[in-house]
């Protein structure tokens, strides 16, 4: 199966789980009209990406049954009008506790996000880490692409054609600074530079990652 078909099948599985809440691999295979074997491969990939989770149901006879459902991260893939609420909340927070405290809150948020990324990057080579980061950013709606600029020494360029938090970034551009700090913390052996910035009117955000 080619990559585009695999992606569409995985997206269809996520949409099915959103509607059904929980389902077995067999139920999903029947609904998607694909083989159970192919379904299990897709489910394995979605589990590794943190988009789904499962409950193990033990029965009196036969094998235990796995029931799959969307994880919180999986549900966050689907459109939610959080931007306006987030900006309004930050405005209220700024009025209540001041800009310095809000900046500390945003910093803490990016530190938590970096910790979540690290869970899926630990133990991998630099190129594998960058590739996994781009995959996760794609899942979050950033339309990320990876370009290998140099192989020895390694040098990578990440291009993001969409800002998934554009509403917040427009009102609170400091979140972009925290984002750059987050990327730097994920690759301590590298220099991470922002080369392009949507907030400054460019058509993408760009990050250059190279060995120090």
UniProtKB/TrEMBL annotation:
A Pfam family it matches: HTH_24
UniProt cross-references to SUPFAM superfamilies, sorted A to Z: Winged helix' DNA-binding domain
InterPro entries for the chain: ArsR-like_HTH (IPR011991), SUF_FeS_clus_asmb_SufR_cyano (IPR014075), WH-like_DNA-bd_sf (IPR036388), WH_DNA-bd_sf (IPR036390)
Coiled coil: none
NCBIfam families: SufR_cyano
Record-linked PANTHER family: SLL0088 PROTEIN, TRANSCRIPTIONAL REGULATORY PROTEIN
Designated name of the protein: Iron-sulfur cluster biosynthesis transcriptional regulator SufR
Protein species of origin: Cyanobacterium aponinum 0216
Gene this chain is encoded by: sufR
């Amino acid at each position: 199966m080619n990559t585009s078909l695999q992606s569409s099948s995985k997206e269809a599985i996520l949409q099915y789980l959103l509607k059904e809440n929980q389902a077995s691999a067999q139920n999903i295979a029947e609904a998607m009209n694909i083989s159970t074997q192919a379904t299990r491969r897709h489910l394995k990939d979605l589990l590794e990406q943190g988009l789904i989770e499962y409950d193990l149901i033990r029965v009196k006879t036969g094998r235990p049954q796995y029931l799959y459902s969307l994880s919180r991260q999986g549900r966050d893939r689907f459109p939610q009008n959080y931007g306006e609420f987030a900006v309004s909340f930050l405005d209220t927070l700024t009025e209540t506790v001041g800009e310095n405290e809000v900046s500390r809150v945003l910093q803490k948020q990016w530190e938590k996000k970096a910790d979540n990324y690290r869970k899926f990057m630990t133990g991998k080579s630099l190129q594998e880490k960058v590739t996994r980061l781009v995959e996760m950013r794609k899942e979050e709606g950033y339309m990320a692409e990876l370009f290998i600029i140099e192989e020895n020494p390694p040098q990578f360029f990440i291009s993001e054609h969409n800002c998934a938090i554009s509403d917040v970034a427009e009102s609170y551009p400091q979140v972009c600074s925290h984002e750059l700090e987050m990327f730097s913390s994920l690759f301590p052996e590298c220099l991470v530079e922002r080369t392009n910035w949507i907030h400054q009117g460019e058509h993408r955000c760009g990050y250059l990652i190279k060995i120090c």
